[in-house]
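Bug #77: duplicate submission created two jobs. Keeping one. Sequence:
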Amino acid sequence: VKGLLQNHSSQTRIIVAHRLSTLEGSDKLLVLKNGEVEFFGQYEEAHKLSPTFQVTERLQKEKDSSSQTEP
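Kept job's structure:
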């Protein structure tokens, strides 16, 4: 994945990711909800402006923290 995100200024790449951390370092982020564009902008802005991003991020953090505490 890191190879896909390396700077290739003359190329446009579309990456579909289920883990939000995969998208860190992307120039632009597009969040779709029910086939509609909910958010388009920078990764850092999505934390504040995209409800879908916020919910997904919270759920991933909860899952990650619960899997670390299980034996």
